[in-house]
Write a structure and sequence with these properties.
With 370 residues, the chain is α/β, with parallel strands linked by helices. The protein folds into 2 domains: 224 residues, TIM Barrel (Alpha-Beta Barrel); 101 residues, Beta Barrel (Lyase, Ornithine Decarboxylase, Chain A, domain 1). The chain contains 11 helices and 17 strands. Strand 16 and strand 17 form a beta hairpin. Helix 5 crosses helix 6. The longest helix is centred in the middle third of the chain and has 24 residues.
Length: 370
């Protein structure tokens, strides 16, 4: 099936379809790799954006990434199958089923998980001992995002010392999330807030080391803040992910050095002629294909129309002033505004180069969130 699709024009793909511009992706990959050639920190890219699609993860590791960051065990399982051997699950792994899966992973790769609770540390140690494996742990610190994480300094030290003393576990360092410095703040304030948060993370590192416990890893940040966090002495790993398949919301909010990579192509399925339908036409892609969580997306082509509203399986578009309504069957290409939520609704990328389908990559974990 894939072989029949390779070589066709993107407008010949059945719709709605998720397109990935190979040239733009390669530009973004090389740009970020070049940046990390010049800073002390290393990149451990987050794969949740593209649901651990192996082709993309391998490209990042080949470009110099020290490993990959996951949000879910299922993502880590896909990566291990794809041959990725150094994985951070930047999340708490809790409960019997997940702990059993975690120790199986630990047999086949270097696995590190985040912790913020003594009970979870005890459980991880018990499962690791019983299975004869070692699990790396990072103590997650709340540096302002107010989601997971222990309080800085003494609570962080107490948990780190507990983890360091537990059989089956290897205390490796700290993690912090500066997610409060992204879409929620202005571009003007982002640098100062990110520097403040990541300097706090390093202060906790220093406090723990002053109390006799080595801290080898200090991990965090993302695409919005990588330039700031990577300049903070003591930050060792950056978890940026969205840069690779850039969306228009990130670009609009200040991350302008990476190229837009993703679009959804759709077909005009109706050109209504009822009252007040002037300039209106309908496409076969709605909210189940294009996430509007960060606002309605922009149209890439043609340039004389715009997205008016999205329902589940339909998109209402209108022509701009003086524009001509497209004909039935005509193709409309729409920039992806929210890459995370849009990718999750597709089962494959159509990899495009110069408007021709170069390859088709299956997106793993459709509907799997464990």
């Amino acid at each position: 099936m894939v072989e029949k699709i390779k070589g066709i024009h993107k407008t010949a793909v059945d719709t709605p379809a998720l397109l990935l511009d190979a040239s733009a992706m390669e530009h973004n990959l090389e740009k970020m790799a070049s940046y990390f050639d010049g800073v002390p920190a290393q990149i451990r890219p987050h794969v949740k954006l593209y649901r651990a699609t192996p082709q993309l993860a391998r490209k990042q590791v080949e470009a110099g990434a020290i490993g990959c960051t996951c949000a879910k065990l299922s993502e880590a399982e896909v990566l291990v199958t794809a041959g990725i051997e150094d994985i951070l699950i930047a999340n708490q792994v809790v409960g019997k089923i997940k702990l059993q899966r975690l120790v199986e992973l630990a047999r086949n790769c270097r696995i590190i998980v985040a912790v913020d609770n003594p009970r979870n540390v005890d459980e991880l140690s018990n499962y690791a001992q019983l299975s004869g494996v070692e699990i790396g742990v990072l103590v997650e610190i709340n540096i302002g995002h107010n989601r997971c994480g222990v309080a800085p300094f003494r609570p962080a030290l107490d948990l780190a010392q507990l983890a360091a003393g537990k059989p089956g576990l290897r205390f490796m360092g700290l993690m912090g999330n500066d997610g409060h410095c992204t879409l929620k703040v202005s571009e003007m304030d982002r640098e100062a807030l990110s520097l403040e948060a990541n300097r706090l993370l390093v202060q906790v590192r220093n406090f723990i080391e002053e109390n006799g416990l080595p801290v080898n890893i200090v991990s965090g940040s993302g695409t919005f803040t990588y330039r700031y966090a990577s300049q903070v002495e003591g930050i060792t790993e950056i978890q940026a992910g969205t840069y690779l398949l850039m969306d228009s919301a990130f670009q609009e909010h200040g991350v302008k050095e990476f190229e837009l990579t993703l679009s959804v192509i759709a077909t005009v399925i109706s050109t209504p002629d009822y009252p007040q339908s002037e300039g209106l036409f309908i496409i076969d892609a709605g909210r189940k294909s294009i996430s509007p969580m960060l606002g309605n997306p922009d149209v890439k082509s043609p340039d004389n129309v715009f997205v008016y509203s999205l329902s589940d399986e339909h998109g209402r578009l209108r022509t701009k002033e003086g524009g001509i309504v497209p004909q039935l069957g005509e193709k409309i290409e729409i920039w992806v505004r929210d890459a995370n939520a849009t990718i999750s609704q597709f089962d494959r990328f159509y990899v495009i180069r110069d408007d021709i389908v170069e390859d088709v990559w299956e997106i793993p974990l459709g509907g799997v969130n464990t």
